[in-house]
Protein 1
Amino acid sequence: MKILVPISVVPDTTSKIAFTDGDTKFNEDGIQWIVNPYDEWYALVRALEITEKDGGTVTVISVGDATAEPVIRKALALGATDAVRVDTKPTESYVVAKELANYAKDKGFDLILLGKETISYNGSEVGGMMAEFLGFPFISLASKLDANGGVATLDRSTETGTEVVEVKLPAVISAAKGMAEQRIPNMRGIMAARTKPLTVVPASGVQGKTSTVKFGLPAAKSSLKLVDPENMDELVRLLHEEAKSI
Amino acid sequence: MSVLIVADTKNGAVKKASLEAVFYGSKVAAALGGETVVLTLNAKDPSNLGNYGATKVLNVSDASISASDPQKVVEAIVKAANSIGAKVVVFAHDSTGKAIAPRLSARSGAGLVSNVVSLPDTSNGFTVKKNVFSGKAFALVNILSDEKIISILPNSFSPEKGSASASVEPFSVDVSGISSGITVKEVKSESTGGAVPLPEAELVVSAGRGLKGPENWGMVEEMAKILGATTACSRPVADIGWRPHHEHVGQTGVAIRPNLYIAIGISGAIQHLAGVNGSKVIVVINKDPEAPFFKAADYGVVGDAFEVVPRLNEALRKFKAANG
Ligand SMILES: Cc1cc2nc3c(=O)[nH]c(=O)nc-3n(C[C@H](O)[C@H](O)[C@H](O)COP(=O)(O)OP(=O)(O)OC[C@H]3O[C@@H](n4cnc5c(N)ncnc54)[C@H](O)[C@@H]3O)c2cc1C
Ligand SMILES: Nc1ncnc2c1ncn2[C@@H]1O[C@H](COP(=O)(O)O)[C@@H](O)[C@H]1O
């Protein structure tokens, strides 16, 4: 099976979120970049498991500038066969999805497995858009996935339960928690990653549909009210009368 | 300019998040001077959507057109939007919106903004506010395309219920030419013990590693029962198997926005906060006064959970008995 795993490069989960240039740009000073957890822990690891069992290749692809390369190498260290970088700074999902689809359209991938969302801009948008551009089915939020013989079987999570879904390949599937267990790259993988192919392809220059005008931080919590641990009637009173939440 | 809202159903009833989208869409339609039209997927009696601001409902009655098969739903939406001349389509950013809105955007070339938490500002373009970085920040995004798609963050808008009724028309669309290759084999409902599922819950009681072991969750479940709340937990607790995985909230778990979040024995790591910081009121019970969670809390109790929680349960029981 030939699998494509789109990965995004995001700030580490503990990063301090701040903005510069009059709140129009994310402040990248001192930021540690990582592979988006959903892409690495679930999509990539499951893709590796499937090909380790039945043979095949796993190509990782990221739309990003050259600063993304060290992070892309981490995906190679985990076991991906090769990597592609589409050379442009991602600005919005529509552009990313179109660039990814442009690359994938004539390569014969059986399965495109990506994360359910990026923890940076949290859109859950790229997978569905990419599927539409390619004319493939899209199944979002899969927490379990098996694929062989041209068919994938998966669990799709909704607010109220799980659907067991079967889909003909090729298809685009987004990975949620549960699909696989996080792996740690070993020394052999890290050494091998240095010589694995990382191909840079030019972007096709798709026009975006949106533009971000400004960023901001939410208003801080007004102030903490401490309640005496001996007096839980007081907490109940506050929740009822002041917070009006019970 | 009319606004089209896509509303999903569960057993024929319109989902809560979709009701919020209808209410939101009616406000947008009012601002743009158009009709509020709702496309419902297999609703039983959607005329009550008038209470949420809908003027007209187009109801699809075809079980094959469901969120499990986005291509068919997109076909229905495109036809409905064309028939009413809608330039704005609104979704709830739940499992349905996530499956369908992006496909619609790619199909129609309409700019999409997800996780929206404000009404559009049309004074200079068409700008909406969305949550980014798991709620740690927001962005103001201008939609440049003529047609626009907005997917709103659940629990961000509380509908004011009116008493109007909407006209309901059956809506049919030919999807026989679409073979997406998707078959739903089985639908398993998660057992939340009758409680509201976490993404929709208004009251949530959550506990973490401070509880020491799964055998100590009785008092947490008891609190949830008294309040009619849903239970949640921190990630390590789900990872070590003390609690089921679907209870895990945070950046890599379920993101919730309840009216009240009670966190017991949870330190308040940044990744936990990322999934719960949209809660309207946060109560933290922790024996360590330095626990970072207190910085994000409205009410704090510094004390041992094993003493505080039974006491709080008692107080809640008294309150419920007195207030019905
Ligand atoms: C990439 C990444 C993603 C992550 N995603 C998530 C996520 O989605 N959700 C999540 O929750 N975590 C997530 N984490 C983990 C997170 O960093 C924390 O490790 C985790 O939230 C800690 O869980 P905890 O608060 O239950 O445990 P601890 O940090 O061990 O805290 C236990 C707390 O209980 C208190 N306590 C102990 N005994 C008592 C007592 N008797 N009475 C009262 N209080 C007591 C302690 O003072 C302490 O504050 C993620 C981590 C990473 C790296
Ligand atoms: N710049 C990018 N390059 C490659 N894949 C991406 C990029 N951005 C997002 N993705 C993929 O699309 C998924 C959903 O992203 P999003 O729609 O931005 O939430 C992510 O989990 C990644 O798998």
Note: The first helix of chain B runs from residue 16 to 32.
Protein 2
Amino acid sequence: MGFITAMSSMAIQLKANRVVTGTKIPHPCGDPNLSAEADRALRRTIMNCALASLQTDVKGPTMFSPDVTFTSG
Amino acid sequence: MKLEMATFFVKDVRFSKHTSYDSEVLEINKEELINLVLEDKRVLSADLDVARPGEKTRIVKLRDAVEPRVKVSGPGCVFPGILGPVETVGEGRTNRLSGVTVMISSEYRPTILSGSGSQSSVIVDMWGQVGHLTPFGSMVNIVLMVALVDGVTELDAHAAMQLAEFKVALRLAETTREKVPQDIEVFELFRTDPSLPRIVYIAGATTAWHMPHSGVAYYGLPIRESLPTLIHPNEVLDGAITKDVRVGTGHRPTTWSWMNPAVILELLRQHGKQLNFLGVILQRTRFETEFGKQITAACTSQMARLLGADGAISTRISTSGNNFMDMMLTVQACERKGVKTVFVTAEWGGKNGDELPLVFYVPEATAMVSTGSFERDVMMPVPDKVIGVGDCQLIQLTSGDKLYPSSVEFTLPASYCLLDGVDCLGRLSSTCQQY
């Protein structure tokens, strides 16, 4: 199972196997501040990372970071 | 900056024709105080009652409590930015009535009906076991009961309810103006022995950017996504930090608790004796990305290092796991910069104490103080009297929550259903034993 969350280091501590870093706690899988097009591209990036994590063998909790630039806290 | 805190003890409160203070008794003219509250056109009706320790009295629909204080000399006023202009406070003399509070039990028609931004209320019992779970069971509480007119916005509701309690508290403290206090304590961060350990206090303050009021205000300004701010501890004692009065919850300290901040008071008292108190870092927490959390941790720890701190004591408000992570990362960042840090926090642990007490940890958090679990059930016995605004037969604490019958026995799911039921600022009234 892959787990998309903005609190990824907490998920690692809780022993989730495949942790995918999401954008933000209220919206881990996108960003409503972006245009519809840019939001769709961002969601695709995160989902591709999550799908890639499912195809990767892991030995214990592992972090997968999508290629996303963070600009807000 | 030298602040003289002059204390006038209150053993009892009596209704009278005049509002006055003498020989540890506060006499109040109920009509005068009610008229003061009714001056605000947002207030539909107001009433007032008194609850004393030991009485089998339950107070419901509570949102906040405040200690009566008045500035008698020096710049500004108590609650700067709210009761007067913005002027840096913490100097001169402040008179306080000790052992008495002004509480607000209130209702209005909310426009936010669900979620974390909605209004809520809590309970206080004046006797028995539940009376010991909040600081208010051992004090005389003057309970203001206020209903607002229809059509107020959420922020207006906060402002009207806050103004009602602050104005009444100020009027009561005014009675001490010409009187001789029983005690004067002087708080000052004077230059001291350089060999004493240099200690900073990190006050974690959870705020939410998306709510009408963010949750915590500095000089009346709700703090939103700010980076840490360095403030003088005396400012806090003069009411520089206040809260969203709409949200009555044991998760967050009352204004009373912010005016009596346990860690700040003890650090001030030990300044020049055991330690050198450097100041308070007011740290906004509850960032919504790990990126943001890392930045607040980096910035706060850097501020501590620039102050030359040897050690830090940190507390947090709100029991959310979100802000817990910010605080833990701050402990880590401080320790890595050579600032030894003690983290004071309430814990989870579940109903029976056999669940995870902490949701996140860092190996650098080697010294922590627990202020107890907030997840235990609270058994509420049958009261003789219930005080609260409007109809108090059935009470609802948060929007969408179930209704509790206030005058029969019932069980609350956690201590955060009581006013200051979670010890956020480290007053440590709870003890534990090994078994």
Note: The CA atoms of residues 196 and 236 of chain B lie 24 Å apart.
Protein 3
Amino acid sequence: MKTQIRRSVLVPLALCLALAAYHAAANDPAGTDASKALNFGPEQSLGRGNKNPAAPFLRFAPDGRLFAVWTEADDRAVPPTNPAHQHESTMRRMTSPMRIAVLASSSDGGKSWSPAKQVNTGIEAVQADENGPKVAFNADKKAFVVWSIPGEKGDITRANIRFAMEDGKGGFTPAQTLNEVKDAGRFPIIETMPDGNLLIAWIDRRIDNPKPRQLYLMKLDSQGHALTKNYQVGEGLCECCKLGIAFADNGKTVYMVDREVDDNKVRNHVLRKSGDGGKTFAAPVEISNDGWQVPSCPHSGPSIGRDKRGYLHVSWFTQGRSESEAGIYYSVSKDGGKTFAPRTMIHANTAPETLYNNLVVGDDDRVYFAWSNIDSNNRAQVYIRTLAADGRTWSPIQQVSNAKGNAGRPALALLKNRLYVAWPETDGEQSRVVLRSATLGK
Amino acid sequence: MKITASNCEFKISPSPVSGEGKGEGLREPPIRIDRRKRVILWTCLLSVLGLSAIPGVGRPQNGPQVGQKPAPAVGSEAIPFELKTLDGKVVGLETFHGRPLVMNFFASWCDPCREEMPLLNQLASKSNKDGYAILGIAVEDTRAAVMQYVAEAKLVFPIALDLNSTVKRAYRIFGPPATFFIDSRGIVQDIVIGPMTPERGREGLKKAGVAR
């Protein structure tokens, strides 16, 4: 009888306890493999601490050097012609909004960095955050940089796309404005096409009606000469969100992701596919019908990467149809963007906050995600996790930042067996750029 | 004693204590479980285990979930805060105590915020006469960008900087703009998510007790 009671009660109770322990330990979706956690090295700060570095972006050059571009405060005088400053006397002191874009490289995997070079020589308010500068390289290792500056009247939302490239003499060419219609573009991205030419894309508002916010592209050759005029390939984009891009078929196929906003202010994410090297794009394919209806401005764009099998991996933030759905999501297309798998939540929102995400894909088809979320001290931190090539096995969620204020908008770069993540941290009026890296297991 | 697993309930009833002799009283009371109840218990446990195997089902996410903190809903007290304005003055709900307050969360980079600002400026120019106050709270922004914008848009009402997003999070703002109409007792009377319209502005002020 006693044995029977033990079996009847203790075994189920033990199972209950095991289940409870399992639930307590499981902070993330199914298929988590704790052994896949990454071992990150210590934090490094990039940039001059007293210049409030912000908005880092990482990319490897073809020779394996790691490059970072970010923004810093520009102490030079504010141009007196700027009409926005005539009301300066209404405030205690006018902090200069002028910022520079700087570029630095590391030849030893991020251990040491070259002195940062100023990319833009003019005095202008290089934008940061979601709208920060980006860099690309051609086969000759020449750096090409794009950034955004406010429009003539200082309006950040009616801005301009600027471009400069290394001049071969240790500096950069004078910046040129790429948008042919003034005060119309922001959120630029730049990619080197397999043919060596440059593809630049941005969100444009030269036409505000009837469909606001278009997706514009243009191509430059490796000397910075325009190969095309500005051309529109989409419309109805969410006005404040970064774009994502990936290539296939040696550049013949171009995939772009963005957040759309419809007439009812529903914001879903879409994939646009070009089969002719970015000249034209097919109708957008909805990645997930999240049904996020919001009339305000949650500026957090999606990210895309393509693996060697041709799978397209996409991550994005949405609040969905209720706050309980809010978080960072993932989906994959295994048919070249025709269809997407049902979304998977990578990390639920821990507070009412728009989160920022990024991803890169490794040579082994593993996907690396980075995003921001709120920690138990009500501070935004950067988190990381990976998805194995099997599409099921996730690494645990790892917090990689330890910001005293807030960390956000992580940038990722991956080369062979090392992953790099950089992010900006703000604490009050101070900001800095932080870099960490991890060696990847086999 | 009651054990609850999922929505299945299973009761274990203690039997009368037997063996009142020496030493027996220290033992656990014997428990009798009939076969039917054992089957129910195992069914419940296996169901829970089975559900656990389904991706995402029942798995807690990292940290507290959205919705745990009460939002400052219409009818509830506005959440107190303390921020600094662009000119360095400390400002909070207390500053406006006794007056209705229009509290607007915005950012310099935000399109819909810029769309509604002329209207807020208009409301601000009438606020003294009508006995209410307007406070702009800049979120996800920098002092420099906000100052530039305030100058550019010629804003005439005080602007506070929520540089660490603490007030934004307390008021559950996913993205600006958002406007709270708070009455003179500090009760939230209306909330507008997204850009303000003249109609919503009038309605909000009326609800906040502004007689115009």
Note: The radius of gyration of chain A is 23 Å.
